[in-house]
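Known limitations

Structure tokens in this collection are predictions and should be treated as such. Users comparing against experimental data should check residue numbering before alignment. To illustrate the layout, the record for DDE-1 domain-containing protein is reproduced below. The input appears on top and the generated tokens appear beneath it.
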Amino acid sequence: MKHFELLQSLIDESGIPIRNLLNEDEVGTQRGGGRNNALQELFFWSEEDRSRYKLKSDELELVTILECVCADGTAPVKPCFVFPGKLFAKDWMTVDPEILLATTETGWTNDDVYIAWFKKCFIPQAKRHADPNFPIILM
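Generated tokens:
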């Protein structure tokens, strides 16, 4: 409880707007949900461009997603998808240039992937969203 009281005190004293408060998380999921969920369909879409993508598979392959949400209820920073492998097809990069696609041997993120996402996605996209008169707080 002390952590949240200190955070609230910092926000109140400095006047940092909620659009400058962001939270990053990492989640791992099996592509397609695995064999027990072979009938399951996953849908991904963007509120801005209304593009819709559907994934249906019985694959057990792990995909890790780095995602970021803002305290104002928006998701101003595009995610990073980490696939297992060494290389990926160049046409994967045509989906959205602000999304980071990466590969690692295991499909888990690592320091290199996180730093690339932080530099390519988080910093420029969070700056566009945040009030430039206040610091950006990433929790």
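For this record: The chain has a mean pLDDT of 83. The two ends are 16 Å apart (CA to CA). Please report discrepancies through the issue tracker.
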